[in-house]
Amino acid sequence: MKQIIGSLVAVLFIVGIAAAQDSSSVAQTGSSHMATISQTGINQKSTVLQEDGSSNKVTVNQYSKGGGVNVSNATQNGSNNVASITQNQNTTDNLGYAYQTVEIQQVGSNNQMVQVENGDNNNRHESALQQGTGNVGSQNIQSGYTDNLSAQQIGSGNHFSQSISNGVFGGNGVYPTNEVGVYQYGTGNYATQSFQGGGNWNGPQGTASQVGNSNQSYQTVNGDNDYAGVTQNGSSNLAYQTVTGGTDNTSPANSATTSQTGSNNYSSQTVTAASQSVAKISQTGNSNRSTQNLNGSSDAAETYITGNSNTSSEIQEGGNSNSSFNYVNGYNNSLSVTQSGEGNVSGTSLSNWGINQSGNSNTATLSQVGSSLVSSISQIGNLNVANVSQH
After folding, report:
1. Is residue 300 part of a domain?
2. Of the candidates 278, 301, 319, which is a domain's last residue?
3. Which one, of 16, 126, 98, lies nearest residue 61 by Cα?
4. Among candidate residues 344, 348, 334, 349, the one with its CA nearest the CA of residue 303
5. What pLDDT digit, counting tens, does each position of 145-161 carry?
6. Interior CA angle at 339 toward 334 and 341, to 5°?
7. DSSP letter at 177?
């Protein structure tokens, strides 16, 4: 089929309808540019480059029906840029054809970005870089496996959202994992990650890294063998992680970790997977708070605190044979551990499980309800208080 290409100095539209292989390329230098590319067919490519200007806008829409590869690249250098790319490679086979790749790079201020890839195919990749102030980005893959979302924002007041809404569950472990990742540098950043899929040893993985103050990170994961990780370096940051089990109700083995360095930070972990999950929080600084809620069996909860006037609360309920380890180094710290069920362990003489506090004026509270319970509390320093309840 033929391609229809229209070109102006400041405005460019490309619309193509092809049967076998499409290709489009746009290059503009100036200001107030606009480029629109729409392709319907198989094996499409699209490249848009707009530089040395402002108020640029890029819109790319590519569709492929079976056996297709969609690749699109957009680069904008300036201010007030808007970029939107939608690739819909749809096939009746849910294991589908590969592959779709999208890239967007915007350098400037007040940038907006939207990336969407949907269909039943696998091996999707989306990447975005925004460097400036007041940027807003969104990535969305609606199905498949071996999907990858990555984003990097450098500046202040940035917003970002990543979602894999219908990832494949591979019960026999043959499907590689889905991955999402975001890095933000600055103040007042907001990151939301939602993803699912996986099976046996290769569940989805999500990471969020934020450097600065007053940042927020939200992770929601559903699947087997999931990993959710948050790293925040700064003060007054918030981290929320919610992990639920998938199809393998016997051993989802999900993992959630949060690492915060600074003061006045808050971390929350909620894990409701069936069993063998691990929740870990590490905080270095003063006046930090953390909460952990696990509802399963054979789960492990870990808390590492270094600093002063920190508060930690850990609850394990609804299951049996859970373990708890808490290490605190500093002054005026408060730690609470609550376990309900049978065969729970909070410390033994032969392991590191339990509560370990080093410093002065620390408080440890341990409550266990059930049978065959084991607990251990170690405090080094002066004016420390330990409360233990077993019934």
Report:
1. yes
2. 278
3. 16
4. 334
5. 667 778 888 887 778 88
6. 175
7. P
Please indicate, yes or no, whether residues 171 and 295 belong to a single structural domain of this protein: no
The verdict on 150 and 267 lying in the same domain is yes
Contacts of 337 (CB under 8 A, 6+ apart): 314, 324, 326, 346, 355, 364, 365, 366, 367
Establish if 221 belongs to a structural domain.
yes
Q: Are 149 and 141 in contact (CB under 8 A)?
A: yes
State residue 268's pLDDT score.
96
Are residues 150 and 269 located together in one domain of the fold?
Answer: yes
Full DSSP string of 60-93: EEEEEESS--EEEEEEEESSS-EEEEEEEEE-SS
* 313 plus 377 within the same structural domain: yes
Q: What is the CA radius of gyration of the chain?
A: 25
**Domain extent at residue 220:** 145-154+166-278
The answer to the question of residue 294 being in a domain is yes
What's the number of domains the chain is made of?
2
* 390 inside domain: yes
pLDDT < 70 regions, the chain? 1-20, 66-68, 90-99, 119-124, 142-146, 165-177, 197-203, 246-252, 274, 347-354, 356-359, 362, 364, 366-379, 381, 383-391
**Cα angle: 80, vertex 83, 84; to 5 degrees:** 145
Maximum Cα interatomic distance, the chain, rounded to a whole number of Å: 82
Do 251 and 302 reside in the same domain of the chain? no
Q: Domain boundary residue among 252, 278, 304?
A: 278
Q: Give the Cα separation of 38 and 119 in Å (integer).
A: 17
Do 257 and 319 fall into the same domain? no
Nearest residue to 210 (alpha-carbon basis) of 227, 193, 225: 193
Asked whether residue 149 falls in the same domain as residue 250, the answer is: yes
Asked whether the CA dihedral 106, 185, 133, 268 is positive or negative, the reply is: positive
- Distance of CA 243 to CAs 73, 169, 279, Å? 33, 15, 10
pLDDT of residue 187: 80
The residue among 26, 30, 29 whose CA lies nearest residue 15 is 26
**Can you read off the two tokens belonging to residue 322?**
């859970």
Examine the domain organization and report whether 254 and 174 are in the same domain: yes
The sign of the torsion formed by the CA atoms of 329, 331, 334, 339 equals positive
**Cα–chain center distance at 70:** 25
Structure-block tokens of residue 165: 């809404």
Q: Which two tokens stand for residue 325?
A: 């380890």
